[in-house]
Design goal:
The structure holds 2 protein chains of 2 kinds. By secondary structure, chain A is mainly alpha-helical. Chain A is built from 19 helices and 2 strands. Chain A folds into 3 domains: 1-36; 50-151, no CATH class; 181-401, MetI-like fold (Orthogonal Bundle), CATH 1.10.3720.10. Chain A has helices at 2-43, 50-54, 56-62, 73-88, 92-102, 106-119, 126-132, 139-148, 155-160, 181-211, 215-230, 233-244, 249-256, 272-295, 301-308, 313-341, 345-350, 358-367, 372-396; strands at 163-165, 171-173. Chain A has a two-stranded antiparallel sheet with strand order 1-2. In chain A, helix 5 (92-102) runs antiparallel to helix 6 and helix 18 runs antiparallel to helix 19. The radius of gyration of chain A is 30 Å and the shape is elongated. Mean pLDDT of chain A is 89; it is low at 1-5. Chain B is mostly helical. Chain B is 77% helix and 0% strand. The longest helix of chain B is centred in the first third of the chain and has 33 residues, at 68-100. Classes of the chains: A mainly alpha, B mainly alpha. At the A-B interface, helix 1, helix 10, helix 11, helix 12 and helix 16 of A face helix 1, helix 4, helix 5, helix 6 and helix 7 of B.
Chain lengths: 405, 273
């Protein structure tokens, strides 16, 4: 009895190992070149050791500091030493940038201080530091050093939610003019919602038409959906610039047929309209394809049956067809919404200043402001949102059935 | 009376559908004639509308085929795209074969890892990979971009090949085994030829992903890694010249060829199984 049992469990084990062996190269590859880099990058949102590593002694001394009055002489002397060292090791710029985000004016102050400390062998005292720059007489400067000196911090996430750590350690709102991120997140959600709705309104009729056409015509119509789908994103975005810009094809046409005057040319691109129109076009196939695959399975006899029972076309549609098409509506809408909230290229090219979404802000902090901690925090919030939506998608439709292309 | 109303409704419905199809196709159709514009404008000139032959020209095509920057970007796109496609196809097909086995433990978790590059917003992925490869000293190299494009394209291979394998009849394997074939022979002589259309269309998806990718290039590529989409990005942002409309026309033709090939492969795959 025992021997066939063990041999069959051995066979199972062997085929398990074989399957794992086939999957392993890819899992390792994705793990090393994708998941780990993604994780490390998101770590930047909570972990930033640069200030702590550059000013270690100052920060140790500041632990004892009460925050009510200026620190004592020894802290000034230690800081002066560490500033001198950082400036000769060329790491001063990195910490200056970080602290400057909390305490504006710090960068120029610390640069000047380093220069003065190097040029003349003055004794670095509290008085001499303050005489170089009054920023050293400001309590909030010291709070800023202490705050950015934390290796692990939630401040980038506070920042991403328009909050900040106040000098007494409590959490408060950012000043009015710096409250931009919540608005941007809401705008991204709203714009993605509008685009999803537009895709549904435009996608539903044509998916219905394709699903109810004879096969040869259905194939032809499907190709009309697939051509834009396969066409380069940059080509489609360029086309929308050509069509929508002030001296573009559509405005020319409107002037020609007298719809608008030469001076009344419409601004349809480099603003929110541009983002919405171009993105709706780009994402429409992602709506049509899942809708079509569900609608293809709805027997046309159901509508006939409803009609023969006396339902008007509208009633038959609402009570019979629409409920059966809901799985496709859900799949398409979720997919379009998920892709839209993380979209970058189209808003960057045709969105102007008002048509930017959260991804564009992440790119800005990555490439221009170099505030990588904040970029990572904004990315973290976006990623969590997207993952939640994918879990919903997985529960409703199944991730392996994701119908891209 | 009763029979007339639905007909009106049907006409309205068809007109609406036609307008939506026009919306889908207009941006693609309009760009082709404009690429033959004799003037450096992005719109139809009066001469073009009069069909005056003087107003039409091939100057933008001449410009791109003689432009060193465009030729270089084409070579970069092909080198990066083909390398990434080969890597993604090999890794993805092997993984799909493993995932098709009923014995595999933790399928959901494995699938989650493999699909993660497809569902992560590309801006976050690009930022993460930028830090990773510059930390390795591989910033601004072809290698780092090839690897990045491989990881972005590989989920498409896995999804496509998995779908093909789902309809693959494993009794073929048993039949071959009963005739004495070993696992490698079975794969090479029986299974692979049958799933080849799926593998090929998966690899075309991977190629299309790389060929159209611009965010990773923007973050990680230098001047030597400029691909066609990157060059178009520069063209749109910096100096808008109808030369990019000529490139766009080429890309539209290319997209249609890809679409036809994938459609043909899918029909072939269905016919075989």
């Amino acid at each position: 009895m025992a021997s066939p049992l063990t041999s069959s469990s051995g066979a199972v084990r062997r085929s398990q190992l074989r399957a794992l062996g086939l999957v392993a190269p890819l899992v390792i590859f994705v793990g090393v070149t994708f998941v780990t880099p993604l994780g490390t990058m998101l770590m930047r949102s909570i972990h930033d050791p640069v200030v702590a590593d550059t000013l270690p002694q100052t920060l140790t001394l500041l632990e004892e500091w009460d925050g009510q009055q200026l620190p004592n002489e020894s802290i000034y002397i230690t800081l002066a030493e560490e500033i001198k060292q950082a400036s000769s090791e060329r790491t001063l710029g990195q910490i200056a940038g970080r602290i400057n985000r909390v305490q504006s004016g710090f960068r120029s102050a610390v640069t000047r201080t380093a220069r003065e400390l190097h040029s003349q062998p003055i004794e670095a005292t509290r008085e001499s530091m303050i005489s170089i720059d009054s920023v050293w007489a400001d309590l909030s400067t010291w709070n800023a050093i202490k705050l950015t000196g934390q290796r692990f911090t939630a401040r980038h996430y506070w920042n991403a939610m328009d909050l900040q750590v106040l000098s007494d350690g409590s959490i408060g709102q950012q000043p009015e003019e710096r409250r931009i991120y919540i608005k941007l997140f809401l705008r991204t959600l709203l714009v993605s919602g509008i685009i999803t709705l537009l895709c549904l309104i435009l996608g539903y009729p044509i998916a219905h038409l394709i699903a109810n056409s004879p096969p040869s015509r259905a194939n032809l119509l499907l190709i009309l959906v697939l051509i834009p789908f396969w066409t380069s994103l940059l080509v489609r975005t360029t086309s929308w610039i050509v069509l929508l810009q002030t001296q573009g094809v559509l405005n020319d046409l409107f002037v020609l047929i007298g719809l608008i005057t030469e001076d009344g040319r419409l601004a349809m691109i480099y603003n929110m309209t541009g983002t919405i129109v171009a993105m709706t076009h780009v994402l429409l196939p992602f709506m049509v394809l899942p809708l079509y695959s569900v609608m293809r399975g709805i027997p046309p006899t159901h509508m006939n049956a409803a009609a023969s029972l006396g339902a008007t076309p509208v009633q038959a549609f609402l009570r019979v067809y629409w409920p059966q098409s809901l799985p496709g509506v859900g799949a398409g809408s979720l997919l379009v919404f998920i892709i839209a909230i993380g979209y970058y290229i189209t808003p960057a090219l045709v969105g102007g200043s008002e048509g930017q979404l959260i991804s564009n802000m992440i790119a800005y902090h990555m490439q221009t402001s170099l505030n990588w901690g904040l970029a990572a925090a904004l990315g973290g919030v976006l990623l969590i949102g997207v993952l939640i939506l994918y879990v919903v998608y997985d529960r409703l439709i199944g991730l392996d059935r994701i119908g891209l292309r | 009376m009763r029979s007339k109303r639905p007909r009106v409704g049907r006409i309205v419905y068809l007109v609406i559908c036609a307008s939506i199809f026009i919306f889908l196709m207009a941006p693609i159709i309009v760009i082709v004639p404009l690429s033959f514009n004799a003037e450096p404008y992005f719109t139809f000139t009066e001469g073009m509308l009069r069909l005056d032959p003087e107003a039409w020209s091939l100057r933008w095509y001449r410009e791109i085929i003689t432009s060193e920057a465009w030729i270089k970007s084409l070579i970069n796109s092909l080198v990066i795209g083909i390398s990434a496609t080969i890597l993604a196809t090999i890794l993805g097909t092997l993984a799909a074969l493993g995932l098709a086995s009923s014995a595999i433990p933790g399928r959901r978790a494995i699938m989650g890892i493999i699909i993660s590059p497809m569902i992560t917003p590309v801006i976050i992925a690009a930022a993460g990979m930028f830090f990773f490869y510059s930390g390795l000293g591989l910033g601004q190299t072809h290698l780092s971009i090839i690897l990045a494009h491989t990881v972005l394209g590989v989920p498409f291979v896995v999804v496509t090949v998995t779908a093909t394998l789902a309809s693959y009849d494993t009794t073929f394997n048993n039949a071959a085994a009963s005739l004495g074939a070993g696992p490698w022979t079975i794969f090479r002589r029986v299974q692979f030829p049958l799933i080849a259309p799926g593998v090929l269309s998966g690899s075309l998806f991977a190629f299309a992903t790389s060929f159209d990718e611009v965010v990773v290039i923007l973050f990680m590529g230098g001047i030597d890694q400029r691909t066609i989409p990157r060059q178009m990005w520069a063209g749109i942002r910096e100096q808008i010249s109808p030369a990019i409309l000529a490139v766009a026309t080429f890309l539209i033709v290319f997209a249609m060829l890809l679409l036809l090939t994938v459609g043909w492969l899918q029909r072939r795959g269905e016919a075989r199984n």
